[in-house]
Amino acid sequence: MLKTVSVIGLGYIGLPTAAMLASRKLRVIGVDVNQHAVDTINQGKIHIVEPELDLLVHAAVTGGYLSAQTKAAPADAFMIAVPTPFFDDLSPDLSYVEAAVKSIAPVLTKGNLIVLESTSPVGTTELMCKWIKEIRPDLTLPTDSNTPDLHVAYCPERVLPGKVVHELISNDRIIGGLTAACSEMAKALYSTFVAGELLVTDARTAEMSKLTENAFRDVNIAFANELSLICDKLNINVWELIRMANRHPRVNILTPGAGVGGHCIAVDPWFIVHSAPEQAKLIRTSREVNDFKPEWVLQKILSTVANHSLNKPSVACFGLAFKPDIDDLRESPALHIVNKLAAEYNGKVLAVEPNIHSTNKLHANAELVSIEQGLAADIIVILVKHKAFNACDFKGKTVINVVGE
């Protein structure tokens, strides 16, 4: 029976998962290399923005079920939830996963379960076994024995930022073990807090399923973003066009935006392209369309600046996060646009992001300001549809709105 769980990586997925397990009265040891995150969690507080998570973490810490530290410790099960970015050549960077695996290897004991949650290229779960074997040749793994000492599985997260606490419980989960026994052990762990269906498959199918889900969304967003470019050229209101087209009973076009951001949709399709470059033609094209959209928005802003009646008008960009009502700036097209604008335009560039108080990710020529200060700018660019902007009065302003009416 699993009584103690160690969660490696206490970010946007790891911390909610750790808190959820602790709420079920399992002993949870959170591990992260970020000392600030560790200290904050041990105070019963959170270092990220996610509704309801603060209450969950506070209860778990004060109840004695959740603690955080910077070094791995023995446990019955280990869940790895660390970043998986890509290199400049778009190939996957598995260094965080490798470092996490190698950090827990010395404390592994016979009977342990290791679950990878990080979105990863196909074959990564098997690769984890290789890394463990290099450090712990005394332990048998599912890749070299039908009765291994360790059980290994891949169980991808599939939650929406801003609704993570709810979706961790309600969403179906894919359980991809390297053996049937691995799957059953992982299923027992997730059944402690998941009310959705636990779908058992093999590890490779589970890995590809996560990539497929995000590639599907990326392709559909690319269609909407490409429509916005076409409509701009043909002088058509894209928002009205989509509303009209979506009245067809079998059409559901998404809303265009400033691009695609976050650590999932903006990254995961490239893992498929890297694994099957000759076959993944549509997926590659969709990525290219969505990666181009921020550059198109930037040129739209610069054109508006050049044609403004004022010399060097001030520009306020509303929104930095990769999606509405969160503080997550990872792979954010809005942040990319603001930083490129600040680098290329020597006028005043303001950034309005109500979900953060400070950041070191802004270009030196851009200033983080309040909504009120942003509204005083000559040109307003709406990059993210935060609820906090709904009450703003943009009348009489030069407005570039790339996220919908």
From TrEMBL:
Residues 316-405 form the UDP-glucose/GDP-mannose dehydrogenase C-terminal domain. This is UDP-N-acetyl-D-mannosamine dehydrogenase. It comes from Rheinheimera riviphila. Belongs to the UDP-glucose/GDP-mannose dehydrogenase family. InterPro entries: 6-PGluconate_DH-like_C_sf, NAD(P)-bd_dom_sf, UDP-Glc/GDP-Man, UDP-Glc/GDP-Man_DH_C, UDP-Glc/GDP-Man_DH_C_sf, UDP-Glc/GDP-Man_DH_dimer, UDP-Glc/GDP-Man_DH_N, UDP_ManNAc/GlcNAc_DH. NCBIfam families: NDP-sugDHase (TIGR03026), PRK11064.1 (NF008286). SUPFAM superfamilies: 6-phosphogluconate dehydrogenase C-terminal domain-like (SSF48179), NAD(P)-binding Rossmann-fold domains (SSF51735), UDP-glucose/GDP-mannose dehydrogenase C-terminal domain (SSF52413). It comes from the Bacteria. One of its GO terms (biological process) is polysaccharide biosynthetic process. Keywords: NAD, Oxidoreductase. The keyword NAD applies. Its EC number is 1.1.1.336. GO terms for molecular function: NAD binding; oxidoreductase activity, acting on the CH-CH group of donors, NAD or NADP as acceptor; UDP-N-acetyl-D-mannosamine dehydrogenase activity. Pfam families: UDPG_MGDP_dh, UDPG_MGDP_dh_C, UDPG_MGDP_dh_N.
